[in-house]
Amino acid sequence: MQVFTCPFCGPRDETEFHFAAEAGKERPQPAEETSDADWADYLYFNDAPRGPAREVWVHVTCGEFFLMTRDTVTRAVSEVAPLPGRGE
Amino acid sequence: MTGWRHDTAGSRIDRARTVSFTFDGAEMTGFAGDTPASALLASGTRVLGRSFKYHRPRGLWGMGGEEPNAIFDVTEDSVTTPNIRATTEPLREGMALHSVNTAPDAARDRAGVLDVFDRFLPAGFYYKTFMAPNWMRWEPMIRRMAGLGRLDPAQQPPADTPQVNGHCDLLIIGAGPAGLAAARAAARAGREVWLIDEADEIGGSLRWRGGEIDGGDWRDFAHDTKQAVTEAGGRILTGTTLWGAFDHGLFAAWERRADAPDRHWRIRARDTVLAAGAIERPMWFGNNDLPGIMSAEAALHYLELYGAVAGRRILLATANDASYPVAAALAGAGCTVTIADARATAPDPPEGATVLKDAPITRARGRPSVAAAEVAGRWIDADTILVSGGYTPSVHLHCQAGGKLDWNAAVDALVPRPGTSALNVAGAANGSFGLARALEEGHAAGGGTGTPPQAASGDLQLAAIRPDPAQPGRQWVDPQNDVTLKDVRIAEQEGYRSVEHLKRYTTLGMATDQGRSANFAGLAAMAALTGRSIPETGTTTYRPPFSPVPLGVIAGPRRGELFNAPRRLALEALHKAQTASFREYGGWLRPAVHGGGDETDLAQLEARTARETVGLYDASPLGKIEVIGPGAAELLDYCGYVRLSTLKPGRARYGFMLNETGIVHDDGVVFRLSADRFIVSASSSHAASVRMMLEEARQDVFAPDRSFIHDVTAGFVTLTVTGPRARDLLRAAGIPDTVCDDTTLPHMSVTETTWNNRALRVARVSFTGDRSYELTVAARDGPALHAALDTARAEVDGRWIGMEAVMILRAEKGFILVGKDTDGLTMPHDLGWTGPRDKRTDEYLGRRSLFTPEANREDRRQLVGLATTNDTPLPTGAHLVPPEGTRRSLGFVTSSYFSPTLNRPVALALLEGGRALAGRDIGVFHMGETTRARVCTTCALDPEWERLHA
Questions:
Q1: Nearest residue, CB atoms, A75 vs list B247, B709, B847
Q2: Which residues, including other chains, have CB under 8 Å from residue B607's CB and lie 6 or more apart?
Q3: A64 neighbourhood in chain B, CB within 8 Å
Q4: Which of A56, B116, B481, B515 suits a disulfide with B519, CB 3.0-4.6 Å?
Q5: Cα B91 vs. chain centroid, distance in angstroms?
Q6: Cα B41–B45–B49 angle (5° rounding)?
C-alpha cells in the first residue's frame, strides 16, 4: 500500500487517490482545428515512462487535483505540488 | 514406530498436563506445549501424509513454515480447517487431525499404486495429455486425486480478525540472536522497537542450539533485551508471522492468539531490520523423500524443545560443522549416531557418535519408512536419516521489498546485496552464520556502538552439496509437489531453462512451503544441466506471502455485507415496514419490490398501479451535486453536451455528460435554482465520477474560484410521486397549491418552497412518462414526508413501488440507463440526440471526438426499440443478427421487460445502423436459437407524451 501526500491534506493511503492525467499534456486548442491524428494522439497515447514520471492525481477525499512526481519502478514519490496557481 | 519421547528433555512441554488428540482416527496423547508435529514424532508415527502426485508416503521433514509434508485438515468443535501445518500450530485438547490427499488414511492410501506408474507421469504430462476436448472429462478425477485439504463449504469462520495499523521507529523481523542484539542496541538508545517472531517465544535458534552470550546463559540476554524493549516503549510480538513486504514500507503481519481472535497488523516503520535466519537444505539422493528422513536442525529442535527424539539408530548425513552439535545432543539422549560427512576432512566426532569421512549418501531404502542408507557404496542400517545440505538464508522479505541477491561462495548461498532494499539484513539471513557473527551484525543493525555482545563461535565450515542429475534413483527436489531431478532434466531438454519456466513447467517451488527447501535444489540442478553458475541461472521472484496466511485474516471484517458495502437509504427501515425486499442497484441498497410472492408478478402489479393511479418510490440515490458561483454556468456548458447557460432559473433540462472521447458518461437532469446555482442530478451510480469530472474542469480549465462544487446527495431524501393521480396525492398530503398548479410548476421546472415549516424542493421531471413530482427534503425530514405521502397514498389507491417496477416504466418510454442501454462506444447521436452536435459552436468536453471518422460511421450501433409478437420478453443480452444469411452480431438487447400496460413485451437494443432499419425484422440469437423481432422506435407507450400532463 503506497502512501501519497496530498499537498492540502498530508500523507494518506493510496486508496484515497485516483490517477487523473499525464502532467504537461496540453489539450490541443482549438480542438476543432486539430487533425484526427493529433486528436487521437492526445486521447490515446501516453508516455508511460519507466522511471520518473510527472502526473496529475486527485485526492478523491478532498477533491483537489495536484501534481506528483514519482518513480514508476521504485515507486518513490519525489515531489507533490498543487496545480499551478493553486494552493496559495 | 521409531520416534520416542525422552524422559527429561524438552523446555517447552509441561509433562503434568497431557493433551488428547486423534490422527486419522487413532487416539493419541501429547503434552501441553507440544505441536501436532512434536507429539506425532514422539508417538513414533512416521507416515503423516501422501504426496501430491504419486501418493508416496511422506513423513515429518522440518520444524516451521518450510514443512512440505505434515499438513493436516484439523477438526475442532465440528469445524474443519484445511491445510494446517503441523509444525506451527499448538496442540490442543480434542484436536482431530486428518492427513490430506489420502483415502482412507495416510498409512493405507489406495492411490499409492500410482507411484508404480511414475515413469508415465513426468513433468508436463498433464499439459500434454489432458487437453481439450477431453480435458473436461478428466478434470473431476484429477481434482479429486491431487491437491491438499478439503474445504468444508459449511464452515464460515467468524469475520472477527481485527485489522490494526501500527507504527514504530524500528521494526525487527526475527527474534533470534541477530534480532535480539539489534533490539537491545536500539532500545538502549531509546528507540521504539517492535520485535516480531513467528515462534511463540523469543530466542530463535538459541532455543534449541543454546549458547552463552557475554559470559551468561542466552536466556539472561533475551530477558535483558525484552526488558529494554519494553522500557523504551516498544513491543514484542511472538506467534506472529510477518508475511509480506509491500510498497512504501508497508509490512503485513499475522498474529496468532490463543484466547482471542487472531490479529492482522499493517506496520510501517522508520527503519527495518531483517533477521529472519536461515533454513536448512535437504540432500539429494535416491528415495530422499522416505518417511524418517528429516532435517538435522529440526531433529535438534524437537529434542531440545519437546523431548521428541526422531529415532534410535540415526545416520546423520552432512557436509558442515553445524551438524556436529546435533549428533552430540542425540548421542547424549541415548541414540546410536553415525555421521556420514561428505568431506574428506571432518572434525572429530562428539562423544558417543562415530564419523565416516568422505562418505556421501547416495541412496536410502525402506518401506514405508527408512531402514538403511547407502553411504560410500555400502549399506548402513538406520531407522532415521538426518540430513544437512547447508543453509539457505531467508531473504524473502528483502526480495519482496525489491532487494537483489549476490552469490556468496564462502557460505554457498545467495545473500542480500547491500543497499538494494530498504531492509537492513543481519545474521544468518545475511549469510553470516555462527552466534558471534549474528550478534555482531545485529548489534550494528540496531545502531549499537561500542562492543557488541560476545559469544565464542567460529565461522561455519561447510562444503557445497549439490544435486547430481547423473545419480541413479529418484531424487526428490520438491517433495510437496512431487518434483524430481528427472523432471528438472525433462524441463531442460524441452527448453524450459529459465528458472521461471522451470517453475511453471514442473510446478517446482509452487507448493504451500513456497519452495523454501526446493528452490535452491531446482536452480542448482538446472545450473548443472546447462553448465551455468547458480548466479547466472538466477532465482524466481519472491512474492508474498512468506508463509500461507488464512484469507480470513487478511479480509478481517470486510466480508459479506461489509465487503464493498452498498450505500443505504435513510428511510430503509420505513421501506422495510412497507414489506420492501432490498437489492443493490448501482451501489445502493434499494427496494426491489414490495410484499410477498413471485417477484415478477409483484413488479408487474406495481408498474400497472403506477400507470393507473399513482406509484411512490425512494429516489434519494439520485445525485445532487450543487454547482454554485458566477462561473457555474460556463463550467456546466463546458462539461455538458446540452447547453445550460441558456436555462432559466426555476427550470430543468435533460442532458448528457461526455468524456473527452465523446462517449456518454452519464445522463441526467440539471436544475437551475438561481442565476448562479445549479443542481446536477447525476444518475445514482455515476454521482461520484460526475463530481470528479466537474472538479477536474473547474480546477484545470477554468478560474477555480469562480465556482464551487458540492455533492450533497447523502444529505437529502427524495421521494418521487408518479402517475395520473399524483397531483391528487400531493394535495391530500398537504403539499402547497403552487406545486400542484401546472402554470406555476409546469413539466421540467423546479421550485423551492416550504411544507409544514420544512424546506421542500419539488421538481417536475419524469422517469416514467407520467406526471411526476420529485419531492426533496433534508434527510432529517424524510420520515415526516414519507408518513404524509403514505397516508395520502391510501386515498388514491396508490402503491410504493420498487426499482423493478421503475425499470419497466422507464423502458416502456424508452428512457435509458447509461451503462445498461449504452456501452463504452455509445455517443449521444447514437441515442438520437443530435441537436448540440449539429448546432453548438462553442467548445465542450468530448466535442472534437464527435466528428472523427469513427463517430461519422453509418454503421454505428444505435439505440432502437424492438417489438415481438411473442408473449415472452426477449432475453437481455441476446445478440441481434441478420434475419438471413451469415450470422454475425449486429448488436444486442440492452433492456427487456413485459409491459403490463401494453400487455406485450418491450425491449431496447443497440443495433448497427439501427434507426434506418425501423419497421424491418431482425434476428435475435440466444442460446443457439434465432427468433425474430421488429425494429421500432424506443418509445413504446404514449408516443404523443400526453400522460405527462394528464
A1: B247
A2: B615, B801, B805, B808, B809, B899, B900, B901
A3: 699
A4: B515
A5: 29
A6: 100
Tally of CA atoms within 13 A in the half-sphere of B640 that contains its CB: 28
Torsion angle of alpha carbons B556, B559, B563, B566, nearest 10°? Answer: -130
Are A34 and B849 a contacting pair at CB < 8 A? no
How many angstroms away from the CA of A47 is the closest CA of chain B? 18
**Homologous superfamily, domain A1-24+45-88:** Folate-binding superfamily (3.30.2270.10)
Taking a C-beta distance cutoff of 8 angstroms, is the pair A9, B255 a contact?
A: no
- Cα separation, B17 vs B33, in Å, equals 9
Identify the closest residue of chain B to A73 by CA–CA distance: B402
Helix (H/G/I), strand (E/B), else coil: B795 = helix
Chain A residues close to B696, C-beta within 8 Å: 20, 58, 65
Question: Per the omega criterion (within 30 degrees of 0), is the bond before B104 cis?
Answer: yes
Shortest distance, CA B404 to any CA of chain A (angstroms): 13
Q: Do B704 and A36 touch (CB under 8 A)?
A: no
CA B909-B911-B912 angle, to 5 degrees, is 170
CA distances (Å), B572 to each of B12, B81, B568, B589, B787, in order?
56, 38, 7, 9, 13
Instruction: Look at residues B439, B392, B444 and name the one whose alpha carbon lies nearest to residue B418.
Output: B444
**Which of A1, A31, A63 comes nearest B250 by C-beta?**
A1
Instruction: Spell out a b/e string for B34-56, using b for 16 or more CB atoms within 10 Å of the CB, else e.
Output: bbbbbbbbbbebbbbbbbbbbbb
Q: What does pTM read for this prediction?
A: 0.87
- Whether B386 and B331 have beta carbons less than 8 Å apart is answered as no
CA angle B717, B722, B724 (to 5 degrees): 155
Closest CA to B865 of B934, B929, B949, B924: B934
What is d(CA B60, CA B46) in angstroms, rounded to the nearest whole number?
Answer: 7
For residue B127, the model assigns a pLDDT of 65
Nearest chain A residue (CA) to B844: A31
Neighbours of B844 (CB within 10 A): 21
Name the nearest CA neighbour of B310 among B387, B209, B364.
Answer: B387
What's the rounded Cα separation, in Å, for the pair B519 and B515? 5
Cell, residue B652: 430543468
DSSP class of residue B119? G
Cross-chain Cβ contact A3/B248 below 8 Å: yes
Quote the ipTM score. 0.96
Residues of B in contact with A40 (CB under 8 A): 852
pLDDT for B509 equals 81
Nearest to residue B23, comparing CAs of B88, B75, B79? B75
DSSP B877-902: TPEEE-SSSS----EEEEEEEEETTT
Q: Are B662 and B641 spatial neighbours (Cβ–Cβ below 8 Å)?
A: no
pLDDT tens-digit map of B580-624: 999 999 999 999 999 999 999 999 999 999 999 999 999 999 999
Taking alpha carbons only, the member of B877, B912, B907 closest to residue B892 is B877
- Domain boundaries along the sequence of chain A: 1-24+45-88
